[in-house]
Predict the structure.
Amino acid sequence: MIFNKVNYSLFFNQQCSLCQLQPAEISGLCEDCHADLPWLLLGCPICGLPRSSPDQPCSLCQQKSFKFDRTEAPLEYRFPINSLLPGIKYQRRIQALGWLAELLVHHLQDRCETWPDLLIPVPMHPIDEALRGFNQAELLAERLSRKLQIRCHSGQLRKVHRRAKQMTLHAAARRSNLKGAFSIHGELPKSVALIDDIMTTGATADEIAALLKNQGASQVQVWVLARTPEPDRD
Ligand SMILES: [Zn+2]
Ligand SMILES: [Zn+2]
């Protein structure tokens, strides 16, 4: 019987997706790697900005700077997440999206009291998507849709103008760079979640949330894997 048990563990225990050394225990990770992730424990309830004080809106959100209502992000954009997410985009390490999506699902199941009716991934311009071969936000949204049984529609929101890369611009320039970059088609339900891998300044989510609200949505949540610690960090 012991022999059978050992064989079973050899065949069926997955290794940790990060260290590849210990068996995966939680969401594809070993306990140590899971505990060492840069968890976002306290964030602004509206924009997710990591904070040291309890769940109060940050100074930007107190001035009602954003059109979206809430941000959910399980992680801060720090090591190893700040090397994993670019690795997905630029080195096609798409398999990491599997366990990262699991982390987001667990976070949402702990935090969400009301669920949106529709998931919409932040779109890429068709030329950029063709060059990369995939849109990581769309892959993430499809996984969330399957796990949470919420409809996902990636064709409804489109990026119609190709602009300078947001990561090369400062906060104010990011906002003006996005004006008119997106278009939305068709009716929307009242409650929508916008899906992306990362939120940096919130400018992209804000531009899209304004469009979604003009088109009939009254509640827009933003679900991302990671939030940058400071708005102007990159
Ligand atoms: Zn590990
Ligand atoms: Zn905020």
User: Anything to note?
Assistant: The longest strand covers residues 191-199. Residues 1-36 form one domain. The first helix runs from residue 2 to 12. The pocket of zinc ion (ligand 1) is lined by residues 16, 18-19, 22, 29-30, 32-33 (CB under 6 Å).
